[in-house]
Amino acid sequence: MGAINARHPWSHNDHFHPWIVTRLPEQRHRVLDVGCGRGELLAVLAPQFEDVHGIDVDKTMRGAAAARSAGLANVTVAGTPLDEVTGSVDLVTMVAVLHHLDIEKALSDVRRLLTPGGRFLSVGLARPASLTDHAWDLTSMVTNPAIGYVKHPWVSTQGLQPPSIPVADPRLTYAEIGVAVERVMPGARMRHHLGFRHTIEWTKP
């Protein structure tokens, strides 16, 4: 499957940037992108907010994000851990990051940082456990090459490439994540998606 997908590669994480952009809060002063990676989402959000701040504990990723955002005056990148971030923000984003963190602590920090009416938008990974989880993963496996062909119709000659960002296998199942989310962010909307991803959407009262 990896070799097949390598013929028409596509970013499962960047694929969800439009999902984020269509769910931005009404107030758009400051946004925090946690685990900003190479800075692709920072560049997408820059025209939408007065202040766009990315944090990443990985020095290589911070360097790539800073280089990617060099021409964007309202974008900053730092290595501050989430629990040390201060101030308030109108939006917190995470793309393939939450499974790297202590989930309840991270969600509590997000809740602390958000202004009333502020939004949390997360794209994440979960360990499949239920029949529904496996059905979504199977469907993602089947559709993945087709989506790749649409997004990248020419055949790549580079073959299977190593991950360009730090990766880790998710430890929590979709259901376990849901329990933690409901405990910290009651009423949050959580949904399965193709591409081996799920989303979490919450507005702070």
Quick tags:
205 residues; alpha/beta; Rossmann fold; seven-stranded mixed β-sheet; 7 helices; 7 strands; 21% strand; globular
Summarize the structure.
The protein is built from seven helices and seven strands.
Would you kindly provide a written description of the structure presented here, covering whatever features stand out?
The protein has 205 residues and is an alpha/beta fold. Helix content is 34%, strand content 21%. It contains seven helices and seven strands, in the order ααβαβαββαβααββ. Helix 5 runs parallel beside helix 7. It is globular and about 45 Å long.
Note the topology.
Elements: H1 2-7, H2 17-21, E1 30-34, H3 40-45, E2 51-55, H4 59-68, E3 75-78, E4 89-95, H5 103-113, E5 114-124, H6 131-151, H7 174-184, E6 189-193, E7 197-203
Parallel strand pairs: 1-2, 1-4, 2-3, 4-5
Antiparallel strand pairs: 5-7, 6-7
